[in-house]
Amino acid sequence: MIRRFYAEELRAVAHLRCDALVQAFASVPRERFLGPGPWQILTSADRGGVIYRTTPDADPRHLYHDVLVAIDAGRLLNNGQPSAIAGWFDALDLREGETVVHIGCGTGYYTAILAEVVGPQGRVVGAEIEPDLARRARDNLGHLTQVEISEGDGCLFNPGAADAIFINAGATHARSIWIDSLRPNGRLLLPISASENSSGVGRGGMLLITKHEDGFAVRFISEVGIFPCLGARDPELNQQLLSKSDRDWGSVRSLRRKPHEQVESCWLHTPECCLSRLPPTNSAV
Predict the structure, then answer these.
(1) What's the pTM?
(2) CA 70, chain centre distance (Å)
(3) Domain spanning 80-283: which superfamily?
(4) N or C: which end of the chain has fewer CB within 10 A?
């Protein structure tokens, strides 16, 4: 009952359209992925510091709210905000039987949500760079035959052909290996972000990149604050993003892959994958 209430609250807060996604949040036990309670709940985070409160006991009901729960409070490592991640997953328009890749899967809670949505005929591939988290994810998800977890750098990991890819760490640019893995009509959910330092939380925008016959369409989904994906950070691009006083995420309309000189329509120019203000029909040339 408590998980159903939690799932319906996420439907309302995140404006979820996908019934299967709501059902997944009502079905997957969050406590399985967070270790034994009591748990630490994030109550505030600003320039003055981060504050956690400890739940009064180990009753799982404390986890079924739209809250960040610490995986490792000492490193400020949390199990993500349910409403934010639910909204991003909703934007992926996942279907039963699809193949989904989750880069930065942590202990596997949201990977399990993806597995519920695509069902036993689907496939979910998770990658996690931290050995301890990858081990925990494998243990937590071992009962799901459609899920496989790999330990390693998600920027180098080749997951094979995928219908959807979710990058759960901030990048300054799209990596070719992610774009190359997309099937026709495949979707890449990618947080483009800039960090004041190499290991701190970055701020930016969550972009949905969709592969069409005539190019790659890009749509801004939401603002995002997220830890960095270290292998997908370019110092020069990071500085360019930091220097944009008005990042105007909504003007990004396509991703260009063919080499070209930087022009006015380039929102963030990179030799590998350029974010452009051009529509995808024009950006393909």
Answers:
(1) 0.94
(2) 17
(3) Vaccinia Virus protein VP39 (3.40.50.150)
(4) N
